[in-house]
Amino acid sequence: MNEKFLISRTVLFGDRDAFGRLVEAYQSPVRRFLMNLTGGDEELGKDLAQETFIKAWLNIGSFRSMAKFSTWLFRIAYNTFYDHTRSRTFNSGTQPLETADRIRYKTADTDLQIDMARAMQVLTAEERASMLLFYMEDLSVENISRILDLPAGTVKSHLSRGRKKISAYLEPTAYNAERG
Amino acid sequence: MEIKDKKIEEFFKAGRTEMPDDGFTHEVTSKLPPRHPWLPYLIIIASFWIGVSVWLFMVGSSFGWEVLSDAISEPGAATYGISIMLLLLTGSISFALYQTDNV
Predict the structure, then answer these.
(1) Could you tell me the CA-to-CA distances from A28 to A42, A58, A161 in Å, in that order?
(2) CA-CA distances (angstroms) from residue B46 to A60, A88, B3, B43, B90?
(3) Taking the alpha carbons of B85, B91, B92, B93 in that order, is the dihedral positive or negative?
(4) Which of A23-27, A68-72, A95-99 has the lowest mean pLDDT?
(5) Cβ partners under 8 Å of residue A130, min gap 6
(6) Mind telling me how many Å the CA of B61 is from chain A's nearest CA?
(7) Closest approach of chain B CAs to the CA of A158, in angstroms?
(8) pLDDT for A180
(9) Per-residue pLDDT tens for B47-56?
(10) Are B15 and A49 inside 8 Å of each other by CB?
(11) Exposure winner among A59, A75, A149, B75, fewest CB in 10 A?
(12) Chain centroid to CA A108: how far?
C-alpha cells in the first residue's frame, strides 16, 4: 500500500494497522542504525527503536510531507539515541561509549558484525551517525544534515574525519588484507 | 556532491544486516498509547461552522440581510458574539487536545 495513504490514515483516523504497516517497512533500517550507533548492542538498539516508533506515532501529526518519511524517522531515532546517551552520561558520570564485550549480535556473520562494532568505537557519536547514514543507508549529505540538525559543512567534516579514522582502523585488519 | 571511498563503502555494505521482524512490529503496535485522531475534531468544527452559517442564513432571511451589518450596534449583537466565542472555544479545545496528545 502507498506510504502516503498509510500516513494519512494514521494521522486522520489514528489507524494502528496502517501505522503497523509503516513500522514493518521501516523497522529494519531504524533498528540497524540504532544497533550500530550503540556499538552493536542489539537489545538496546531494539529498545530505542521501539521508543522511536512510539514517538513517531504520537507526533505523526507534525510530519510534513516535504521531507521523506524515512528522514523524519531517522531524525527521531537519532534524537532518541542522543537523549539516551545524555541521560546515561548524566547518571553515571562516565562516557557511554560501548566496549567490545558488550556486543550482543545474534546475526549470522558475527565476526563481521563485531568488526563493524569495533570500527564504530573509534568514532564519535556524530561521526558514527554521519558515516552510518552516508555509507550504510545511502543518504545524501543534505538529508543527513536534516537528521542530525547540523549544517551540511559540519556533516562533511564529520564524514572526512570518520573516513580517516575508519581507513586507519581497516589498515591492519584481515578485512583489508583479504581484499588486497 | 560528497564522493564515497570505495573501500569504506564496501566495509559498511558488508555490515548492512537486514533485521528480521521477529514480532517487533506486533510488540510496538501493542504498546502504542491512545492517540486522538484529527478527523472527529475536524468534523465537529466543520459541523459547527455549517450550523452557524445555516442559522445566520435563517436569521438573515427572516429580518433582511441588513441585520448582519447592523448587528454590532443592535442589542442582538450579543448572540453573534456568543456564537463566535463558542466557535473559538471549540477550535481551541480541539487544538489543545491534539497538542496534549503530541507531548
Answers:
(1) 12, 20, 27
(2) 22, 47, 52, 5, 11
(3) positive
(4) A95-99
(5) A144, A148, A155, A158, A159, A162
(6) 37
(7) 12
(8) 44
(9) 777 777 667 6
(10) no
(11) B75
(12) 20
Q: Do B28 and A20 touch (CB under 8 A)?
A: yes
Rounded to an integer, what is the distance from CA B28 to the centroid of its chain? Answer: 25
pLDDT in tens, A106-160: 554 667 777 777 888 889 999 999 999 999 999 999 999 999 999 999 999 999 9
For residue A158, the chain B residue with the least C-alpha distance is: B2
Query: 10 Å Cβ neighbour count for A107?
Result: 16
Total residues belonging to chain B: 103
CA neighbor of A74 nearest in space, from A147, A130, A150, A156:
A147
Query: CA nearest A74: which of A129, A127, A124?
Result: A129
Cβ–Cβ < 8 Å for A131, B12: yes
For residue B90, give every residue at least 6 positions away whose Cβ sits within 8 Å of its Cβ, in sequence order, or none: B44, B45, B48
pTM recorded for the entire structure: 0.71
Three cell numbers written together for A162: 570518520
Which residue bears the cell 502504542? B32
Question: Closest to B25 (Cβ–Cβ): which among A15, A24, A62?
Answer: A24
What average pLDDT is seen over chain A? 83
